[in-house]
Amino acid sequence: PRSTLFPYTTLFRSENVDLFDLDDLQKVGALNLDEHRRDLAQARRLVEAEVNAFEKWLATREVVPTITALRDQAEEIRLTEVRKALGRMGELSDRQRIAVEAMSVAIVNKLLHAPIVRLKANREPDDPGAGKLTIVRGLFGLDEPAGAVRPRGTA
């Protein structure tokens, strides 16, 4: 207790002993509290940044089924058209067949790249599925059964 007049300083005077009273401990505690408050503020900023990044990632995950369906449809069309073209071309060397396949893959990838990037980048987290996804799925007939063909001129 502070009220004690006992001479602690004379009793514990030693090179190997540090003597702290309650006032000293309160000063150290106050310093630690300030440091903890700064650390807490920094931790909150880090958590907020990570939550925002996660929410953005989660919003882009909502477009994955549409992107997958679009890529699957494009690949199905590519394979069908390459088979037709190779059948009309007659005898080709393995090198020529590989070149035709590679060209068709490159064309599909280049056509789909920008739309897919835009679907991912411009996805609104609070958009419940309306908007671009609905438009893309409708434009490409992605909600129709596989292999379904609509007559020309119908929506």
Topology summary:
Blueprint: H1 8-11, H2 22-61, H3 64-89, H4 94-121, H5 132-139
Helix pairs in contact: 3-4
Main attributes of the structure:
155 residues; mainly alpha; 5 helices; 68% helix; elongated
The sequence of SSEs as H and E is HHHHH
> What's the helical proportion of residues?
55-70%
Helix count from the secondary structure assignment = 5
Largest sheet: none
Number of strands: 0
- The CA-CA distance between the termini, in Å, is 89 Å
Poorly predicted sequence stretches spanning 5 or more consecutive residues: none
Radius of gyration: 34 Å
The computed structural class is mainly alpha
Task: Write up what this structure looks like.
With 155 residues, the chain is an all-alpha fold. It contains five helices and no strands. The protein has helices at residues 8-11, 22-61, 64-89, 94-121, 132-139. It is elongated, with a radius of gyration of 34 Å.
Summarize the entry for a quick read.
The protein is an all-alpha fold.
